[in-house]
Amino acid sequence: MSSTPTPATRPLAGRQIHPLGLGCMGMSEFYGPSDDAESLATLQAAFDLGVRHFDTADTYGLGHNEELLGRFLRTLAPARRDEALVATKFGIVRAPGRYERRIDNSPAYVRAACDASLRRLGVERIALYYCHRRDPQVPLADVVGVLSDLVREGKVGAIGFSEIGADSLRAAHAQHPVAAVQSEYSLWERSAEAEVLPAARALGVAFVAYSPLGRAFLTDQPPAARDLAADDFRRALPRLQGEAGAANLRLQQTLAAVAGRLGQGSAAVALAWLLQRQPHVLAIPGTRRQGHLRQNLAACELVLPPPVMDELDALFHAGQVQGERYPQAGWAGIEHQPSGGRAA
């Protein structure tokens, strides 16, 4: 194969780190039952394999995810612990056991949330602190203002925004440097290519792609809603339902055929496409299992030739994937939405 290999590191929050991080959400919630011992072993395996970017949020497991990551960090020697780039988020408020949420960006809440995250993580400074979702009732300048105060106070190293629109990103960055914007991005969800990805690239802001494997749909074992655990939120995803789910499965089968021709797994091909297509993008595939972790990391060694890149672009062009990417409750606080509707 010929093309450009994925660089060994990419910039994020003032650091050069492995282009693949680890999304930790599923270790606590949303993807069915989890096991803390298995999750801790996977965190250790990720660190041993060179992963340094660990992504969490205060809403994942209502604090459990940050506490779990904090437990892992405490097992590391201080010098090694300093190598970890921990990113967490504020802004989504939920009741226990509920997916529905409200968004809170008030300065008082941001400060309280930051202090609580510091305690749960057991760190003195959060390397990258995201506004998880935007509350349109709170002026963006107020949010950036309190975040910049937290940076000056040493509680936060760098700031970011998740699912923010391009205009808001430019305004925030003009007030205080934004280190990263995080949005869903993959073959499965490409709406960020219209505005947010170009804006981040132009500003020199890192783009962190969450769900880069389409919530496991871009793997060799795509989920069927009927087979998922009762507490797996993917059961409610429109893209897994009815005619949309059937159409999307046909797309996944085409991806699997392309991967088969290359002698690779679907996940490795999907991640390699993302990393090769966007040089300023880092990805945070989530997994609880060491086997899946190693499969994901293998994508960094895979170089897709230009004809394969073009083939995948054409197969998954805008409008091909059917259904909205979130159920209704999941759209709260999302500024970054594709033009012309949500279901791109």
Detailed description of the structure:
This protein is α/β, with parallel strands linked by helices and 344 residues long. The protein has a domain at 16-215 and 277-304: NADP-dependent oxidoreductase domain (TIM Barrel), CATH 3.20.20. The protein has 11 helices and 12 strands. It has helices at 36-48, 64-74, 78-81, 107-121, 140-152, 166-175, 196-203, 242-262, 266-277, 290-297, 306-315; strands at residues 10-12, 15-17, 22-23, 53-55, 85-90, 92-93, 102-103, 126-131, 156-162, 178-184, 206-210, 281-283. Strand 3 (22-23), helix 1 and strand 4 form a beta-alpha-beta unit. Helix 1 packs across helix 2 (64-74) and helix 5 (140-152) crosses helix 6 (166-175). The protein is globular. The relative contact order is 0.16. The model is unreliable at 338-344 (pLDDT under 50).
> How many distinct beta strands?
12
- Helical segment count: 11
Distance between the termini: 31 Å
What percentage of residues falls in helices of 4 or more residues?
25-40%
User: What is the overall pLDDT average?
Assistant: 87
Shape designation: globular
Could you tell me the CATH topology label of the domain at 16-215 and 277-304.
TIM Barrel
How large is the radius of gyration? 19 Å
**Which H/E pattern describes the elements?**
EEEHEHHEEEHEHEHEHEHHEHH
